[in-house]
Amino acid sequence: MRKAITLTVNGKSRPADVDTNLSLLDLLRAELGLRGPKYGCGMAQCGACTVLIDEVPARACMLRAARIDGAAVTTLEGLADAETGALHPVQQGFLKAEGAQCGYCLNGMVMTAVALLRRTPDPSDALIRDALRHNICRCGAHLEIVASVREAARLLRGADV
């Protein structure tokens, strides 16, 4: 069965005719060519596929695209400034504090950190760890990831984002 939907993806209206079983992740990657969200576990457990839906972190691998008709979806690609290409402060924080090794978890860590810092501009390390607890980093870069979010918070407090 198919359904016509329209999503706002990274600020652009994107109509699509989707199979009702198509995951949001498959729509974003296969049909829209966005590579930020990754396929990790396919069970919403690892966080590699995290996107923001109406500003709330969500696992795209388990969401059916047809069920979020009308929603605003932000992917990793949508964080950078569209006009200048300047990276979002959270992306800058991860670069500066070297918060990635292999980079596979990076999408989920960044997207979850963006949502956290919008809610809590100056989180404690405990709050950062709690917010990221459902995102798996297999490389063990957890200390650098926490430092990256702290750096991003510092950058955001100095920037109007």
From TrEMBL:
Residues in coiled coil: none
Keywords in alphabetical order: 2Fe-2S, Iron, Iron-sulfur, Metal-binding, Oxidoreductase
GO molecular function, a single term: oxidoreductase activity
Stated name of the protein: Nicotinate dehydrogenase subunit A
A Pfam family this chain is assigned to: Fer2
Gene source species: Pseudooceanicola algae
EC number(s) reported in the record: 1.17.2.1
Protein origin, superkingdom: Bacteria
